[in-house]
Design brief:
about 5% helix; 9 helices; disordered N terminus; mainly beta; five-stranded mixed sheet; 58 strands; Immunoglobulin-like; 22-stranded antiparallel beta barrel; Maltoporin, Chain A
Length: about 1050
């Protein structure tokens, strides 16, 4: 990396001699009162070079060409253009006037358009919003920033996957996340691992490779109309990421950004602290009892400090340890990101080189993540009419021991939180040279040899936390290249031709080892897998932009050719022959798997916008895709959209200084679609291990292919308004949308006499409708002080309209849609919202709760019913930005409401006696608990006979074990309000750096997830979910949420 940085510096240094030098300074004041104005934008016209005034209103520009003109802009003041001439010092006074409302945003295919001409909603976020209180995965940083965008912060560890949903879920069974496009390149955002019924691990996704320091802007295209030009893959919306380019300037510009934060586990648990390990109210009498009582049993005696034997035969004080265990096991994590950038250029050529290193040490011992990014951008103009743009982004990700989550036996968090509360986790460290292993000279109850897993009970599936953290391996490395090359020829002043060749390519290698000596897999197992993915897009566009009197025309049309391939090679096996030698060649049983997939889409598209007198705009777009994944006789789909906008403030000639500064109405209609996965219409085959030297072959899938599949269709209507008041000091953006998906692709059961279990059909239908609101304002503005506030809110109402004929419900996401308890499930049910939670309740007879008359335990219902919904209906956030002279503060609060969560974590805590409910006075349906000593049950038997029963201390564990099977008792309101991020910093004035070779220094204190301001959950975070599938609303020992805090330093040379 050091050699690469040196090479970058030498390259840019050589280029630096091409540019001349000239420096001007100036002061900008208010014409009204003569006070200096800070934060004024000073831009050299015809270039991308500019600066901002400091709190004294002063600025400095270097490498200013002869005959330069400066554009001076500031929110709330009139824009000015100033001739520099031969002056080297300027004094400029700005008049108060309406701010410039001709905002330009990036839309489909990277085309910049006036926002007032758009007929749909689009939100653009500056890259600087992501570089201070940052996330490792950039997608998670969208939470609370954009109305209508539901970004789920998964509890899956550093660099885990993201789940971003725009305007609700569109498909019942398909991918509902948006298409990500980086510099015009559609990128693969696949998730590489999921945790479900049997646990697993989240191994990241495509957006985790993006460096926030490379980002110039992020544009969120929310409606179908906004995304229609991207065709089938944009049916869930589009997130456009534009990376930084070089700038014209004197010599070489150098930017250095360093961000260092600590991370601490947020412990939401409120454990019962009165009783410890044991059974029937008794502590273990000897090592045999301690071993047989189970790993997670807290049904023992009351704590009083007595000496009690534990799993290893050693008697230790019988005291509450669990709160301290959290501190003993987890460590203070950290993330350190250092980015160095070089840029330079003149009016015709510029270049930017960037290098970044991220080093994360997880709060989980022996885990971490490293990312290395290198990016290059070149812009060149030749012969006045030819422009060449080339961008290359390279990333290398190296994850060490990604955490296993949910019910995975290697889940260290599960192992830690289910320890008996009287046990000190440090007593399980075992061999100091091999943590979690049986030490030399000790013979455990199960007779394991030294070096094998040290366990504390006869339940071999309950892992030692240290063994899970230090001896399991779950590592992966990914190398990725994203490249975009564009050539544009301006044939005339109004006609252009553009070609683009782009590629997203990566290889990913992973190693997953369950080590020799593990309790539940004594001889261990292993998997090594390598995946290669490549997508190439070739694109050609012809466009024009011309004005005919009062009428303006902006139009373009083009062709796109996409080819995608992926191949995976996997080596798996079990039973290591030589103990503790973890290689594939040492496995007694081995198997090889190889998968290859190819697909392609050919497309034509076009767009035309006609404007009249800068207040009326009509737009139509069209695209047709031809899919390789569909039947050749039925493999294309057409995506149209129409819309318009009326800037009525221009039409009515409203005075900019009045109450209403700007007003616009917009409406649009669009239709988009989504194709299916490769080979769903074809039979595929596989080769087996062979027998007696002869190969074997079989049909790969159990689902009958359907050659008549067509893409799903999503139709959306949107209306909205944009208003600005009080000289643009206050603004409002309001949107209403209604969207319906038809011909969704579902799996339908068929007779097994066909040789298959199911087939794939076009039958599903779902609808979404909702509102989005953005309020912004600047309540206070003086020469030295400003306060900006924005508030966004969204509501989404979703309904499953229909499924296959005769089918009223389907399981959502299979095993991903149920936790290990198997007492709750995610379903899609006709007439209900997407992703309802179904589970068991207590059996009732004539309104009376049913209990077992022999045991007094509640009787679980024989059928499951709808208990909640795992998707939030309401989302939003509020941002406050305050600046005073060189000081500033940015604060983001976000919220979600209207969603529920089934907490398998609390189920397990109650069933094992760790929940406070099991020791405190509690009154529930048909019972009154007086702690561990007595529970009085009043109800009816399964035969309907009324009875009352009093349970003693030997029976309360059985009662709570049965109670934990009642799913409805563990459905929680998942609404929350969070203090998501805070940045407080200081920009050093240039006057204090006259003798330093720097242009700007900015130092900030940064923090994320500082506080949970509203919460209805017990013991876990309301965002505690363990996968990013369509099955949301389930919790089961996810990776703990963390709080980060530290500093960010930015220096510009």
């Amino acid at each position: 990396m050091r050699k690469l940085l040196l090479l970058m510096f030498l390259i840019v240094s050589c280029v630096g001699h091409l540019w001349a030098q000239r420096t001007i300074t100036g002061t900008i004041t208010s014409a009204e009162d003569g006070k200096p104005l800070s934060g004024v934008s000073v831009l050299i016209l015809g270039t991308t070079k500019g600066t901002l005034t400091d709190f004294e209103g002063k600025f400095q520009l270097t490498d200013v060409p002869e005959n330069a003109r400066l554009r001076i802009t500031l929110f709330g003041y009139s824009q000015q253009e100033v001739e520099v001439g031969d002056r080297t010092n300027l004094n400029i006074a700005l008049e108060t006037e309406a701010a410039d409302l001709d905002e330009v945003v990036i839309t489909s295919f990277g085309i910049k358009r006036d926002k007032k001409a758009l007929q749909y909603s689009v939100t653009e976020i500056e890259g600087s919003d992501f570089t201070e209180a940052r996330e490792v995965n950039i997608a998670n940083a969208l939470s609370g920033k954009v109305a209508g965008v539901n970004a789920v912060n998964l509890s899956s560890g550093p660099a885990g996957s993201s789940r971003v949903i725009i305007r609700g879920n569109v498909s019942l069974t398909g991918n509902n996340q948006p298409l990500y496009i980086v510099d015009g390149v559609p990128i693969d955002n696949s998730t590489f691992g999921q945790a479900g019924l049997w646990g697993g691990s989240d191994e990241g996704d495509g957006t985790s490779s993006i460096n926030p320091d490379d980002i110039e802007t992020i544009s969120v295209l929310k409606g179908a109309n906004a995304a229609a030009l991207y065709g089938s893959r944009a049916s869930n919306g589009v997130i456009l990421i534009t990376t930084k380019s070089g700038r014209s300037r004197k010599g070489i510009g150098i930017e250095f950004n360093s961000n260092f934060v600590f991370e601490d586990v947020i412990n939401h648990f409120d454990f019962q602290d009165q009783y410890g390990h044991g059974r029937d109210g008794l502590a273990p009498a000897d090592a045999n009892e301690a071993w047989s009582f189970g790993n997670s049993s807290n049904w023992g005696a009351r704590f009083n400090g007595q000496m009690v034997p534990q799993f290893d035969g050693v008697s230790r004080p019988y005291t509450f340890q669990q709160d301290e265990n959290i501190k003993r096991f987890y460590q203070t994590g950290s993330t350190w990101t250092n980015t160095l950038g070089f840029s330079g250029g003149n009016e015709n050529h510029n270049i930017r080189l960037n290098a970044s290193i991220l080093d994360n040490k997880s709060v989980l011992p022996n885990a971490g993540f490293k990312r290395r990014n290198v990016s290059m951008s070149y812009n060149g103009k030749f012969a006045d009419r030819v422009t060449v743009t080339s961008k290359v982004l390279y990333s290398n990700e190296d994850a060490q021991n990604r955490p296993r989550i949910a019910d995975s036996p290697g889940n260290a968090t599960n192992a830690l939180y289910t320890l008996p509360y009287s046990l000190n986790v440090n007593d399980l460290r075992g061999d100091p040279n091999k943590l979690g292993a049986v030490p030399e000279g000790f013979v455990p109850m199960d007779g394991k040899a030294p070096g094998e897993e040290l366990q504390i009970s006869n339940n071999l599936w309950n892992a030692n936390p240290w063994w899970a953290a230090y001896q399991f391996e779950n590592d992966d490395v990914r190398d990725r290249v994203i490249t975009s090359n564009v050539v544009r020829v301006d044939v005339t002043d109004f006609l252009y031709v553009q070609g683009r060749a782009s590629m997203d390519w990566y290889t990913r290698r992973e190693t997953d080892i369950t080590p020799y000596g593990t309790g539940y897999a004594r001889r261990g197992n292993m998997q090594e897998r390598e995946r290669r993915v490549r997508e190439i897009n070739l694109e050609a566009i012809v466009g024009l932009s011309k004005t005919f009197g009062d009428i303006s025309v902006d139009a373009f049309g083009g062709y796109n050719r996409m080819r995608r391939s992926s191949e995976t090679l996997a080596l798996t096996g079990n039973n290591f022959n030589i103990p503790f030698f973890h290689t594939v060649s040492n496995l007694a049983n081995q198997s090889i798997g190889y998968d290859i997939s190819k697909e392609g889409i050919n497309s034509i598209f076009g767009s035309a916008t006609i404007g009249y007198k800068d207040y009326l705009y009509l737009t139509g777009t069209a695209r047709r895709d031809w899919f390789s994944t569909l039947d050749p006789d039925n493999n294309d789909i057409f995506y149209p959209s129409v819309g318009g906008s009326l800037v009525f403030s221009e039409l009515l000639g409203l005075d900019a200084s009045g109450l209403l500064t700007f007003g616009k109405l917009r409406a649009s209609w669009a239709q988009v679609g989504g194709d299916t996965d490769p080979y769903r219409r074809d039979l595929t085959y596989r080769l087996g291990q062979g027998h007696l030297g002869q190969p074997t072959a079989s049909i790969q899938q159990s689902s009958l292919p359907n050659p008549f599949l067509v893409p799903l269709t999503s139709t959306e209507f949107e209306v909205g308004t944009e208003l600005a008041f009080f000289n643009n000091r206050m603004g409002l953006d309001l949107t209403f949308y209604s969207q319906r998906t038809t011909e969704d692709i579902l799996s339908a059961s068929i007779s097994r006499t066909s040789g298959f279990n199911s087939t794939t059909v076009n039958v599903g239908e779902m609808k979404n409708q909702g509102i989005e609101l953005l309020l912004r304002g600047r309540p206070v503005q003086t020469a030295d002080f400003s306060w900006d506030v924005s508030f966004n809110f969204a509501y989404n109402d979703n309904e499953v309209v229909s499924l296959a004929e005769g089918l009223e419900e389907i399981r959502n996401s299979g095993n991903l849609g149920q936790p290990r308890t198997r007492w709750a499930f995610i379903f899609n049910v006709v007439g209900e919202p997407f992703g309802v939670i179904k589970g068991f309740t207590q059996e009732m007879i004539n309104g009376q709760p049913v209990f077992n008359p022999e045991t007094g335990q509640p009787v679980q219902s024989s059928e499951i019913s709808i208990l909640g919904n795992g998707v939030h209906k309401y989302t939003g956030g509020m941002t406050n930005s305050i600046s005073w002279k060189g000081l500033y503060a940015d604060i983001l609060i976000d919220f979600k409401a209207g969603g529920d969560i089934y907490s398998g974590t609390n189920v397990r805590q109650v069933g094992s006696g760790g929940h406070r409910m099991t020791v405190e006075p509690v009154s529930g349906l048909g019972f009154v608990s007086e702690g561990r000593e007595k529970i009085t049950v009043t109800g009816v038997s399964p035969d309907g006979e009324a009875f009352t029963k009093v349970l003693d201390a030997t029976e309360t564990d059985g009662f709570w074990g049965a109670y934990s099977q009642l799913s409805d008792r563990f459905i929680y309101d998942a609404s929350f309000i969070k203090l998501r991020h805070v940045s407080v910093g200081y920009t050093i004035p240039r006057t204090m750096m006259d003798k330093l070779p720097v242009n700007a220094i900015r130092l900030s204190f940064v923090a994320r997830n500082l506080a949970l301001l509203l919460n209805h959950m017990e013991n876990v975070d309301p965002e505690s979910t363990y996968n990013n599938s369509n099955a949301q609303g389930l919790d089961y020992y996810s990776f703990p949420q963390t709080r980060s805090y530290g500093f960010n330093l930015r220096i510009d040379f």
